[in-house]
Structure formats: C-alpha cells, structure tokens
Amino acid sequence: MSKQIRWGILSTAKIGRTAVIPAIQQSERGQVIAIASRDESRAAEVAAELNIPKAYGSYDALLADEEIDAVYIPMPNHLHMEWTIRAARAGKHVLCEKPAALNEKQVSQMIEVCREENVVFAEAFMYRYHPKHRRVKEIIESGEIGEVRAIHANFTYNNCEDKDNVRFQKNMGGGSLYDVGVYPISAARMFLETEPEAVTVHALFSPEHDDVDMMASGLIEFPNKVALTFDCGMWACARAEFEILGTKGRIELPKVFGWENSDIPPQIIIHTDHVTREERVSVSNSFVLQAEAIADAILDGKPLPFAPEDAVNNIRVIEACLESAHKRERVQLTSKVPVF
C-alpha cells in the first residue's frame, strides 16, 4: 500500500465527527491520528469514540506534532483564516470547511500563504467530487437539453430554535448565505464554468438570531444572459434541489448536495420532449472521494479538480449577495481570478 496522509483535526465540530473523520478513515490513502479541542477532555472523549490515537488540549499542540501531514479545519467561519495560516506555517496541508473565510481578502491571503509554504489548500465542498456531476456536464455538453437558459436551486433547513448555534452569531460569520447559499452558487459556477456578472438578493435578517440572514432569495446573473435563481435558509422546510433548464429539456437533481452514501444511488433526471428518463450513478461517499483527491494531490502532485482560486471567486459572490441584501439593490461584480 502506498504511503498514507496522516491527518489532524482542529476542532470536535459535528461535521468532522459524523462525516469527514469517518470518511478519511474509510479512504485508502488517509488516516486520522490526532484531534484537538480547547477542552482536552472533550478531545480525549471524541478520540476514544472515533479510535483516534492522539488527543490535544490546544490547536497549537496539534500543529506542533511532526507526524501530522495535513489538517482539517471545521471551526466557525471567522477562525478559518487564522488557523489555515497557522497550519500552513507549520508545514501542514489544509482542508478548510466552506466558506473558506469571510471575504475575498482573507481567502486570498490564506491561499498566498499556503503557496509560500508549498502546502495544498482545499475548500471542503465535498459534493463536487461525486461522479454524478461529471455526468451532468456530459449531458449538457452533448446538447441533449439544448442551450442552457437558466438554473434554479435551493438549500434550506430549519434550525431556528438552536439560538446558541455559531451559525446564528454574526461575528462568527453566521447566516444562511455563508452556511448553505454557498452551495447553489458554487454549483452554478461549476456547471456553467464561468463567473457571475451581477447579483440581486433579498434576505430575512432576524433580530432573534443576532441579525444574521436566516433566509435569502436571489438572482445571480451570468454571461450569455443565463441566470441562477436560488433561495437558501436556516428557518424553512428542509430541501436541496437543483434544476438546469435548457432550450430542449431540463436536468433535475433532487438531492444535489446530500450525503450520497446510502443504499439508494443518487439520481439524475432528464426531461426532454415529453420523455423522462432517470440515470443512476454509482453510490459514492463524497467525503471519501474528497479525501482521496487531496491525498493524490499531496502524495502524487496531481492537481485538485478545483483550484484554490475557486474559493476566492465563490466568496466574492457571497460578499456581493450580502451587500445586495443589506442595500436592497443590484450589485455588479467586476474582478475575478481565472480558474476555468
């Protein structure tokens, strides 16, 4: 067996415990050897629960461990920049939860430092690694649904009663656009392979939740007169749907951002000329595929499917969405980093 990446986990956050850590442990080229928390007893508890050999009572202690090759950072959004940079300075490769940081300047600085230190940086949009998305691109490129005219997407759930949740803390980078709005926006950019020109967003800023956006609805304008209409929220019925509308048909992805590791394969539904067919792609755990892609990049020098600059372009759109929602006006986007 080829060398494995030895991972350290900075935080005992739920997404790490329930999804990312088990996925790394299931991967062929990764193992989790340490986890850190500001509470050493909590780190030890999770380490015992998930069969992780080492537990640290501080993040710096984990970064000082010379046996660790890479770290996963599932901290609150406002801490992503600081600990990505600290990890890079310690010579660790970085997988950072989405959104990579709170604004374009922060993400650009993170990527710059990672490049200076010659470490891999990846934003943890696990869904993008699933093979069904490559198949969707093939269908679009085949011309089966004609020219793409519009994309419609949503990602919502209801967690409004959990008032202490970090997602409802404004100074921690809370809000639905940062938490779930990033998904339909990143997916539209991925499928269209181009960057937006302008955004118009309306949001529900809730005084009960530190004035973060608990719901947002928007229009994202792309070149060639194509647009994404979307809504995202943390105070609405749960759903995660995606539709690509063409001149001859449409593609429907009923559970586009889900944990696709169940017994039921993910589905792609194609509607054309009053005929509907369903394609099923192999059951794959997107978190495992993400871990394997990062291991390939670190061990073999294989380029990641999504360049670090993709994180810069995505957060630029989110910033514009928040600006539009606050000002109640259309916001144009001018600069961008080439990634496609």
Quote the distance from N terminus to C terminus: 34 Å
The stretches of 5 or more residues where confidence is low (pLDDT under 50) are none
Q: How many separate helices?
A: 9
- State which percent range the strand residues make up: 25-35%
Order of helices and strands, N to C? EHEHEHEHEHEHEHEEEEEEEHHE
Tell me about the biggest sheet?
9 strands, mixed
- Gross morphology is globular
What is the oligomer described by this structure? Answer: single chain
Number of E strands: 15
Rg, Å, rounded: 20 Å
Mean pLDDT: 95
Q: How do the strands of the widest beta sheet line up side by side?
A: 14-13-12-11-7-10-9-8-15
Q: Can you walk me through this structure?
A:
This protein is an alpha/beta fold and 340 residues long. 34% of the residues lie in helices and 29% in strands. The chain has nine helices and 15 strands. The strands form two sheets. It has a nine-stranded mixed sheet with strand order 14-13-12-11-7-10-9-8-15. A six-stranded parallel sheet has the order 3-2-1-4-5-6, sandwiched between helices. A hairpin with a 2-residue loop joins strand 11 and strand 12.
